[in-house]
Amino acid sequence: MAAQIYSGEKYASRRREISANLAKRPEFHDSKPLPFMTREEKILESSRKLTLISKHMNEIIDPSDKRELYHLNCEVLGIEGNPMALHGDMFIPALTAQASDEQQEKWLSRALRREIIGTYAQTELGHGTNLRKLETIATYDVDTQEFVLHTPQITALKWWPGNLGKSSNYAVVVALMIIKGKNYGPQTFMVPLRDEKTHQPLKGITIGDIGPKLAYNIVDNGFLGFDHYRIPRTNLLMRHTRVEPDGTFVKPPHAKINYSAMVHVRSYMITGQAIMLAYALTIATRYSSVRRQGQIDTTQPEVKVLEYQTQQHRLFPSIARAYAFVFAGAETVRLYERVLQEVETGNVSLMADLHALTSGLKSVVTHQTAQGIEQARMACGGHGYSQASYISEIFGVAVGGCTYEGENLVMLQQLARYLVKSAGLVQAGQSSKLGPLVAYLGAKSDSTSLIDRTPTPGFAEYVKTFQHIARKQTLKAAQKLFGFMEKGDTREVAWNKSTVELNRASRLHTRLYIVEAFVRRVEEVADPRLKEVLTDLLRLHVNYELLDVAAYALEDGFLSSSQLDYIREQLYFYLAKIRPNAVSLVDSWEFSDRELRSVLGRRDGNVYENLFAWAKASPLNKTDVLPSVDKYLKPLMESARASKL
Ligand SMILES: CCCCCCCCCC/C=C\CCCCC/C=C/C(=O)SCCNC(=O)CCNC(=O)[C@H](O)C(C)(C)COP(=O)(O)OP(=O)(O)OC[C@H]1O[C@@H](n2cnc3c(N)ncnc32)[C@H](O)[C@@H]1OP(=O)(O)O
Ligand SMILES: Cc1cc2nc3c(=O)[nH]c(=O)nc-3n(C[C@H](O)[C@H](O)[C@H](O)COP(=O)(O)OP(=O)(O)OC[C@H]3O[C@@H](n4cnc5c(N)ncnc54)[C@H](O)[C@@H]3O)c2cc1C
User: Fold this and answer.
1) What angle do CA 575, 382, 39 make, to 5 degrees?
2) Considering only CA atoms, which residue is closest to atom 3 of ligand 2?
3) Residues 405, 516, 545, 595: which is the catalytic one?
4) Cα 205 to chain center, whole Å?
5) In this structure, which topology does domain 261-430+461-585 adopt according to CATH?
6) Which of 180, 293, 518, 546 is 20–30 Å from 122 (CA)?
7) What is d(CA 509, CA 336) in angstroms, rounded to the nearest whole number?
8) What is the per-residue pLDDT across 415-441, written as a single tens digit (0 to 9) for each?
């Protein structure tokens, strides 16, 4: 099963070898539990381990393999980030996609050797979403052939870039490019920030950390201001866009090619989110198979809480989602890598499809992941609330994905633009022009679903029902938009009056895509034992998801209320059928205890002994009497006693 999850036996077994290798190297382990450390201690600890990784990486992984590096980082550094997180996640991808060969020779090779540390500085105090209104300006000075970077007011300060605050000495900075008074929109520049020897900020740079956050606190998200700061013309990233010495601007082959680092993260983060969801579910499912509370048969001992249908309903549909997401994530990464290669040859035809797909997936997956993690926490009762479970940290890190790389409700609108265009084609009788991801929009719906009438409930009927729902909502939302425009609203006003409905269409389209990706993967499985278990999980998934969106199919009679009952019964049937495999389904992700960092979710299942040992090790228990008691509480009680006398 691990080979299914990790798209092949080769990587699944490499993960095992890497974990086994690390198990023998205590210097790579957390020196104490992360929840017992201050932020400064965590950053120090993470930097220590990062240095070890840089020194010994070649002995443990093939550093050119992204997935091996990712696994090494998960084991050693963990999810709370590290001082070079953005270096790998965005700085290197931005240089790879946007720097010219000559620039790559100069900077990318140094970045890969870790001679310099970089980040991606785009968001500002006043603007994150609306990139066209960024306020940092890069004005071209023809005389000196330099760009002058400037922060004209406080809202123009860069704000949020990860590892900008304290760690990075370079950044890919996004600024509005002005040449001879003309605004050429957001462009990307390679900018030195700190002296390479002293790490002191360079003259003209104001820089620092933005303070603690909900989670992800090992990362020093930062602020950055420029005071008429000069960089050479050749620091504009010039793989696709160019500015000649005389200020002539050479347009890229696609207007949004500069947004590639964001598309990179959106493509990869689907897998990252699936893994975080699986972390939380591993902890909650293992714990639920140890925790006994209450009885189902009063003549029998207390049951494991995993026997309760409510607990199964709380956890199993999310287990199915984690599988669905990791399968969809693998497809997305393949598409991204293909588009990256095609862009190299000047073919930008798939960029819009990739952008639409990743915008929708990023939004739906992060939202459902956060919901699933929070349910997993609650499924652990009181112990879920303790940092010993580590689920609160997993939640905090994962939920950041709802905001970063484009706020979810904004990114759903990007997909909606694509869907509206497609709906326009359908309306104009040009369905043959629809791309493969939206071809279903042009198909004709059956009048009712046959979900309960096919002999073996196959997935085709479910897919058809999801298609019906997504098609109906897309055409309806587009109609609403066109209707407002026909009545005289501008497109922007009409759009704003239709966005709730448009975003619903985007979610339904994306959920259909996820179901289809799950079906595609299960169809490929050759081993009959695995196929059976994955088919059960997929059946659970399609019934749970369909029930969640059934209102759309009930309102036009595509589904009847008796079919709804059928779907519910199927759901309950598969909850019970999956129960014996539940622990194996989470164990199949093969997370080591070191990677999970959860006292509650350890493989040995010795929950109570482990919790007691953890609590005793808490910093507060180092002494029996705290200074706060000596200083305040004792005098308080003493004075209360004295006043009574
Ligand atoms: C296999 C390996 C295993 C390992 C896996 C695990 C890996 C884990 C990966 C790491 C995970 C986590 C890392 C955490 C790091 C987090 C760091 C966070 C960083 C950031 O947040 S960086 C800042 C991100 N900021 C944003 O995302 C801003 C959002 N805003 C925008 O993107 C844009 O402003 C916009 C898209 C909303 C609007 O842009 P605008 O220029 O105004 O355009 P529009 O007018 O709306 O649209 C015009 C047309 O352009 C099309 N368009 C827009 N963007 C793109 C694009 N990128 N590509 C193609 N086309 C695009 C748009 O659709 C319009 O088209 P149309 O006119 O409709 O045809
Ligand atoms: C953990 C974390 C790490 C980050 N790392 C980086 C980084 O490394 N580099 C970097 O540059 N940035 C980074 N960011 C910033 C991040 O990319 C932005 O916060 C994000 O893009 C959202 O933009 P915003 O903060 O301006 O939100 P806003 O756009 O101000 O959103 C506020 C509200 O307004 C709504 N809204 C905004 N525009 C519209 C619209 N057009 N239609 C409808 N509703 C709208 C949103 O839906 C939301 O409800 C990070 C953020 C976080 C949380």
Assistant:
1) 115
2) 404
3) 405
4) 31
5) Butyryl-CoA Dehydrogenase, subunit A; domain 3 (1.20.140)
6) 180
7) 19
8) 999 999 999 999 999 999 999 999 999
